[in-house]
Design a protein that fits this description.
alpha+beta, 8-stranded mixed beta sheet, 5-stranded mixed beta sheet, 28% strand
Length: 719
């Protein structure tokens, strides 16, 4: 599942690695052995959807990996198995504890192929997702959704991560890839989408229709799916590949707004990865029950909140999610991880691909900000929950591997690898890895080997610390200029707990004088590191890791003059950091003039907002003119910040201003900020207003959450 990100800059500082969750108490997992290889599933399902009932027959074609295969063990949950047949002969079986053990009528030799047919049914499909490590409301297996204002009645499969076993008997593990047919009989007013190409649609009688889909390229069971509902299909195309967007009838006009960049995304990734889109078609379909997307080969499930009106485009574009899910068709589908321990080989690459496309679409400033926000998401998980290696064998449920270490940290590790190898070599590695392991399950060792085969670089030192160890560097940095030398001290102060290493990494250091800007590459190697650079002038700026490549936390005490220079002239993230550090000098006239100039004139919105945030941390009327200036900004995030800081003053005189923003601003984010600002100065007489606001529809329920916050604030005042 994917999360929605708002761009924001958060101050970096050193932290202690508190661990509310001890991952080392989780059991150690190993990739299981298996005695057969499934080649093909033929899944036939006949639904009485509104009764949550279905009858099923699944024919499993498999090849023996044992010299004498005498029994099969499949995963089978939730439904009741009625019979198992082999060449129309009934086989003895035992179905208990989620496993279906089948005794074959005779042993099967190594390499021989057989087909068995399992007949099963359920008259009331119910799954407690918490028993399988998922959230209580997660529709594991099949989700049935009654009609509502938001969507019609529909039902669909959720196979991630172990949901496939709940709707057909299978060997439900990522290292087994098979082709499959999905044949769904459903009510006549429904359309059915599944993986692969549509083979036929037939009238089944009794008010039903049957859709037959076939996926001819092998992929893991967690990527199998189907959806049954009264959809509108908006057609698009990439080269000669059908690209379709399936939406609820009332949302047809939103389909192209939300998904129109899909062909462009596919073309961009083809160029970057060096491998053509490897599947027969690409559908994206709106479903309830999830907040982001869930990859399923050629038939991606997309949460309904992704659809948005024209006004929401500025704050809630869907291209990042379209890019993430499209990238999975190379990373996770074309090549797939062989075990749940290796999930980074899918999710880290797809998350990194979000950055690649953002950088392509919006330019490098938005690109590096995208990476920086991924960094903050990972660091927040470290502070609030735990640290773990990216490749981690300790987990109880597969879903525990789908966290910010797998997504965001893994993406940042790939960015560091790209920087170390260089863009050309990095892209050669990606192409080599994809082409060598096409339609195969892979492990981290396979990727490391591709790096070596393409570049000749033995990078065990890199992968050992970034994939197999825990944590990241926490640096205390300072420098002095003595006798024509810059003496730079970089100390690694991260706690040596839970296998956190002392890091070895190259880092750029930029040194600026009045005449020249020089960039030096240093290597971190020890706990305490000292570097000396000959310099005939006192530096105006010593900038450590100016392009923010290294995943780190850091402190670097600097003078007001150096921070001002850095905030004006350094690369974007370095500028944002320097501006945030100017907070302690906010009463200095020179600093205030500079901050005000950035709020007013800076071309990149994140700089304008960060300068505004420095003023806003004081919450005084002294900076009123700055906040008022921000309300005229062209970017909604800057306007919202201005409203936020005015609201924190809790001055009733701003009520009309907040109401004007709520009623007239074209951004939902700004309107939500205005609701909160009104709540901060509200009284009992405003309760009805906020109750009505809480009922209004808005993206991500912004109005509801802001209105409820305001109601709570008023209640606290009254008590």
């Amino acid at each position: 599942m994917k999360c929605f990100y708002l761009f924001m800059f958060v101050l970096c500082c050193s932290s202690t690695f508190a661990q509310p969750i001890n991952i080392y108490e989780r059991p150690v997992q190993h990739e299981p052995s298996h005695s057969f290889d499934v080649l093909h599933y033929r899944i036939e399902l006949d639904f009485e959807g509104k009764q949550r009932a279905f009858q099923g027959e699944t024919t499993i074609t498999l090849r023996s990996l044992a010299d004498q295969l005498e029994s099969l063990v499949l995963h089978a949950e939730t439904y009741q198995v009625r019979s198992v047949l082999w060449e129309n002969k009934k086989l003895a079986f035992m179905h208990e504890d989620g496993k279906l053990k089948i005794n074959l009528a005779e042993s099967v030799s190594y390499g021989d192929t057989i087909s068995v047919r399992v007949v099963y049914e359920t008259d009331n499909f119910q799954v407690d997702a918490t028993e399988f490590g998922m959230a209580a409301n997660y529709p594991l297996g099949i989700g049935f959704f009654e009609s509502s204002e938001e969507h019609p009645f529909l039902f669909n499969a959720y196979s991630f991560p172990t949901g496939a076993r709940h709707w057909f008997p299978c060997y439900d593990h990522p290292h087994d890839r098979a082709t499959h047919e999905t044949i769904v009989t459903t009510q006549a007013d429904h359309k059915v989408l599944s993986n692969g190409l549509l083979q036929s649609v037939s009238n089944s009688g009794n008010g039903k229709v049957t859709y037959h889909w076939s996926q001819n390229q092998p992929h893991p069971t967690y990527l199998y799916n189907f959806v049954s509902g009264p959809y509108i299909v908006v057609e698009d195309i990439h080269k000669d590949i059908p690209v379709n967007y399936w939406v609820y009838p009332q949302d047809e006009e939103k389909a192209l707004r939300s998904f129109h960049r899909t062909p462009e995304v596919l073309a961009f990734f083809e160029g970057y990865y060096g491998v053509d889109y490897p599947w027969d078609k690409y559908d994206q379909i709106i479903v309830p029950g999830i907040g982001g997307g869930a990859e399923a080969t050629t038939a991606t499930l997309i949460g309904a909140s992704t659809l948005h009106d024209e006004r929401a485009e500025q704050d809630f574009p869907s291209h990042w999610l379209v890019a993430h899910e499209a990238a999975h068709h190379w990373w996770g589908d074309y090549v797939s991880y062989r075990d749940w321990t290796e999930t980074w080989l899918s999710e880290s690459f797809a998350t990194f691909s979000e950055y690649l496309y953002s950088n392509h679409l919006y330019g490098p400033e938005e690109g590096v900000l995208n990476l920086y926000n991924k960094r903050q998401a990972y660091l927040n998980e470290v502070r609030d929950r735990y640290m773990r290696p990216i490749v981690c064998h300790r987990w109880e449920y597969p879903n525990q591997n789908f966290d910010r270490h797998t997504y965001q940290k893994g993406a940042l590790v790939l960015n560091m690898l790209r920087d170390f190898l260089g863009e050309v070599s990095f892209r050669r590695v990606l192409k080599h890895f994809l082409m060598k392991h096409a339609y195969q399950p892979v492990g981290t060792a396979d990727f490391i080997k591709s790096v070596w085969e393409v570049t000749g670089e033995h990078l065990d030192w890199f992968f050992d610390q970034w994939l197999f160890a825990t944590g990241h560097p926490v640096l205390d940095i300072n420098y002095e200029w003595i006798d024509g030398q810059v003496i730079l001290h970089v100390n690694q102060v991260q706690e040596s707990v839970d296998q956190v290493p002392i890091y070895t990494m190259p880092v750029d250091v930029s040194i600026t004088t009045e005449q020249v800007v020089e960039t030096k590459t240093i290597w971190l190697k020890e706990k305490e590191n000292t570097y000396r650079f000959e310099l005939n002038q006192k530096p105006q700026l010593v900038d450590f890791d100016p392009h923010n490549i290294l995943l780190k936390e850091w402190t670097f005490k600097k003078s007001k003059e150096e921070l001002l220079h850095q905030a004006q002239h350094a690369p974007i993230i370095s500028r944002l950091w320097a501006i945030s550090q100017l907070e302690e000098y906010v009463d200095d006239e020179q600093v205030r003039i500079a901050l005000q100039a950035w709020v007013k004139n800076e071309s990149f919105w994140a700089i304008r907002r960060e300068a505004l945030e420095v003023f806003g941390r004081n919450h005084t009327k002294a900076f009123l003119s700055i906040y008022m200036l921000a309300l005229q900004d062209e970017h909604s995030q800057v306007r919202a910040a201005g409203i936020k800081h005015l609201g924190k003053m809790k001055e009733p005189e701003f009520r009309d201003l907040f109401l004007d923003s709520y009623n007239n601003d074209d951004s939902y984010v700004v309107q939500a900020a205005a609701i909160r600002a009104l709540g901060a100065i509200g009284s009992v007489s405003d309760l009805e207003f906020f109750k009505q606001v809480s009922k209004k529809k808005s993206p991500r329920d912004l109005f509801q959450r802001a209105g409820e916050w305001a109601l709570n604030e008023i209640e606290k005042k009254e008590h």
